[in-house]
Amino acid sequence: MNKKPFNALNDCFVRYLFTDKGGEKVLLDFINAVMISADMKTFKSWEKRNLSIWKSNNAWRRKKRGIKERVKKEIILIVKDIKTKNMDINLISEITGLSIDKIRKL
Q1: Which alpha helices (DSSP H) does the chain contain, by range?
Q2: Which end of the chain is more exposed for a tag (fewer CB within 10 A), N or C?
Q3: Which residue from 80, 74, 85 is spatially nearest to 104, judged by alpha carbons?
Q4: What is the pTM of this model?
Q5: How many CB atoms lie within 10 A of CB 43?
Q6: How far is it between the farthest Cα atoms of the chain?
Q7: Minimal CA–CA distance to 97: which of 7, 27, 1, 13?
């Protein structure tokens, strides 16, 4: 079995999509779509658990910092790849949030 590498950018996007205010409905719809495709019963609601105990944990903080660093590195790699395809620097900056000067330096 080929194990694909962790894609930090996708992970970050999915977390943002499902945890942003109002994302509860999106998450419920997503879960139910998966359940329907598996011929299983769907959910009517879900309960968000308090994760504050994780946030106070130093290991959690280190892990979160590591994820942020991997996301930054992944974005840099994506920008470098996009630049080779002659995409507009202003558009790259808008999409990635990187400054135009930083993109030019890459």
Answers
A1: 8-19, 23-37, 52-55, 58-84, 89-96, 100-105
A2: N
A3: 80
A4: 0.41
A5: 11
A6: 52
A7: 13
CA pair distance 72, 76, nearest whole angstrom: 6
Sequence-distant (6+) residues with CB within 8 A of 104 are 89
Tokens of 85: 């395809």
Residue 5 token pair = 């590498």
Phi, psi of 5 (to 5 degrees): -70, 155
In this predicted model, what pLDDT tens digit does every residue of 31-79 receive, in sequence order? 888 888 888 888 888 766 655 555 566 666 777 778 888 888 888 888 8
The first and second tokens of residue 15, run together, are 């977390």
